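Hi R.,

Here's the input for the 2-phosphoglycolic acid complex you asked about:
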Amino acid sequence: MRQKLIAGNWKMNGLSEEGLRLAEGIVDRRLRDIEHGGEISRACELLLCPPFTLLAQIRPFLGGTGIALGGQDCHPELSGAHTGDISAAMLMDLGCEYVIVGHSERRQDHGESDDLVRAKANAALQAGLTPIVCIGETESQREQGQTQAVLRSQLEGSLPELDGREAMRLVVAYEPVWAIGTGKSADVQDVTDAHSGIRSYLAECFGSDLAQGVRVLYGGSVKPENAAKLLSLDNVDGALVGGASLKLEDFWAIATSCP
Ligand code: PGA
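And here is the predicted structure with 2-phosphoglycolic acid in place:
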């Protein structure tokens, strides 16, 4: 069975004081849960993706909690003359286990193509990280009934080169662009259709047994009010949480919504 993954994507938020306070708060909740039998900790894996500037400061808090650390992006090369960029090897060096690649904000703000996202995902795997590959349709693509075609073409273009059991190291995040940061989450039918389409595509690539091991997260206005419903759907293996991950109570409420 796939353990649910609840990932907090802090985006470009968090100066040291507030960032450390948030991380400490999450760690405190997690440790209290472990003391009381670890019911929530067994139901889901927690992942924090703070900005690069906080990774080194947050890492020491996470020891013994089982909470994973991740980056929000990486360069497609592992080192070299790329001023201002951060490599997957550097993230690994800081204790990260995951890295988000192809988030729609990067695709939009930095013109990232599927090819680039694939190169980043390959670099992540090469460095020993698990890439979380983000895909999702825009509002106009959705209105024109193109959602499944867009998701398939993004998967074709951005998934890393994996064979056999390596597929289990992959996480895909379905994040409809129109649902990100808007308060409008996709409804149950949208999410069910998108996730089953993604699972079918993964089965075509890796065979159905291995495809069953890949976690497919939903992201886009996940909040305490809709988390339980979304997380109970077939093929929804967790959530990539933006805005609500910056509020301790909300993030914890989402984590405790895992069935
Ligand atoms: P949101 O962001 O939860 O604020 O909609 C999700 C994301 O962009 O990963």
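One thing worth noting: Residues 27 and 236 are 25 Å apart (CA to CA).

Cheers,
M.
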